[in-house]
Amino acid sequence: MSGPWLVVGTVPDEDAGLMEGRCSLDGQTLSLNGSALPVRRGTPALLAACCAAAKTLGIDPPLGLLAGDAGRGEGSRRAYAHLAANLPGLAPHGLTFHYLFPDLAGHDKVFLCARALPRRPILVADAGFMYAAKMSGQARNYDLFTPDAGELAFLADELAPHPFYTRGFLLAGDQDAAALARRSWETGGAAGTLLVKGESDLVVLEGEVAQTIPGPRTPAMEAIGGTGDTLTGMLTALLMAKRPMLEACAVAALANRMLGQLAQPTPATPVAELMAFIPAALAQALKPG
Amino acid sequence: MKLTFGRKKRSPVASSSGERGIMAFDHTAEVIRAEAALKAAGYDVRVMGPPPDMRTGCDMVVEFALLHELAIRRVLSGVGLAPLAAAPVRAGMLEPVSLFQATDFGAWLMVRAANMKITVDKASGRIVNISGGGCPDVPALAEMLVGRTLAEAPTPAEHGHTLCSYALELAFQEARRIMGAAS
Question: CA distances (Å), A25 to each of A8, A18, A37, A54, B141, in order?
Fold first, then answer.
């Protein structure tokens, strides 16, 4: 299946409007349709990582749709409306949804539109859109969610509308991640595949752990805002390169861990300083054996 | 604290925001004042009878869009109101996450509340990183807070709009408490 891959998210500027187009990365500056965007965290960090990984894989960078939204949700709603109107013409190979206001009505509009396409795109949801996808009851119709340990507990809590309301008995550490992953699938809160980020990363297929990526470990990575975004960015690039889902998850998880090993960050390191290491980290993760 | 009460009236912001919640107040007059203030601020709210498990002495609750809870609390604070309790409608009396996790990285301290984490340089009190969360005000808040000390930074409650920013506010206040206790 051909067609472009579209990454949908936000930038924290209410006045930014909607930006759409092919992305490119020059050093630490991301460009989208002529607009230069700083790479600090959030969707620009995902797109920057995806561009760097795409270059390593020898494929074109993704398309991006970014809405100016600093939390009021109006920019996200504009993005949802734009997608609903334009997805049929785009006929995407895949969609990665990211930092978006978890607006259930907007989610449903986009989801139904994507499902109605003649060729169903691969659907990846992270961050706020993953919350909306779970709330909608349509989680099982997604191909991939990328929760951390706390978000996994939220996915496993059939009553919680947001991670903030996850019930305490489900807020456990990594030792319970496999059980939470199974519960999230059984209660309809999980996508077909989960990449669970934790001390060990788990690749989960329909509620069962298919692969564990235990190392190498760089504990400071957890404190750095944007390291989940670099993971989703590399994973998106691998899916764009038509790597099978489980393989793409395992390679991306290992690459993000290699990123920590190569960059040797402290908890005070900004994510932008990690971007230069993505080509080498991904190359190492792709090595056989 | 910077209050947003009195800001320009804008179009309703909560009409299509998914899950609904309810707020309980000390007495009926407060419910009415809350409804008036929130409608004037552009929020889609309505007064309803409370469920049995929320009867805390009042007869009415305010129904609202859960994702706007932080902004709604700010509007209420601006008119001198504080709800007794808030909960999702569908889930009954689900409590917000109240567990904190603190991780000691040597020179740095990371505090987590729900899905949000804030990391502080222990020597200076400077916020060095904010991670986690998924709502679009998280990157905006990170840009405001990172590089400032816990003492001088605006609180997430002042500028946030969503439950993620509410969780960040809890982590921020817990970091302040720990750092204050350590100094």
Answer: 17, 19, 10, 10, 25
Residues in B touching A150 (Cβ below 8 Å):
112, 114-115, 132
Residue of A nearest to B17 (CA): A103
Q: What residue in B sits closest to A130 (Cα-Cα)?
A: B134
Q: Which residue of B has its CA nearest to A128?
A: B134
Q: How many CB pairs under 8 A join A and B?
A: 189
Q: Look at residue B7 and tell me whether its pLDDT is greater than 70.
A: no
Residue B31 sits in a domain whose CATH number is: 3.30.70
**Nearest C-alpha of chain B: how many angstroms from A218?**
11
Shared-domain flag, residues B32 and B75: yes
From A131-145, A234-248, A252-266, B83-97, the region with the lowest mean pLDDT: B83-97
Structural domain count of chain B: 2
Q: What is the pLDDT of residue B1?
A: 29
Looking at B88, B113, B142, the residue that finishes a domain is: B88
CB contact residues (below 8 A), chain A span 227-256, against chain B: 227-228
* B5 within domain boundaries: no
**Co-location of B178 and B104 in the same domain:** yes
Q: What is the pLDDT of residues B104-114, one digit of tens each?
A: 999 999 999 88
- Kindly state whether residue B11 falls inside one of the protein's structural domains: no
Q: What is the residue range of B110's domain? A: 100-182
At B10, is the pLDDT very low, low, confident or very high (cuts 50, 70, 90)?
very low
Domain boundary among B88, B114, B135: B88
Domains of chain A: 5-286 (3.40.1190.20)
Partner B, chain A 26-85, Cβ-Cβ below 8 Å: 40-42, 69-77
Strand boundaries in A100-188, DSSP class E: 122-125, 144-145
> Is there a contact between B18 and A104 if contact means CB atoms under 8 Å apart?
yes
The answer to whether position B95 is within a domain reads no
pLDDT of the residue at B29: 63
What digits encode the pLDDT tens for the residues A47-85?
999 999 999 999 999 999 999 999 888 999 999 999 999
Band the pLDDT of A242: cuts 50, 70, 90: very high
Q: Express each pLDDT in B134-165 by its tens digit.
A: 989 999 999 999 999 999 999 887 787 777 88
CA distance B54 to B59: 9
Q: Same structural domain for residues B105 and B84? A: no
Return the bridge partners of B160, or none.
none
Residue B12, domain member (yes or no): no
pLDDT at B50: 61
Establish whether this prediction's ipTM goes over 0.85: yes
**Contact flag A164-B166 (C-beta cutoff 8 Å):** yes
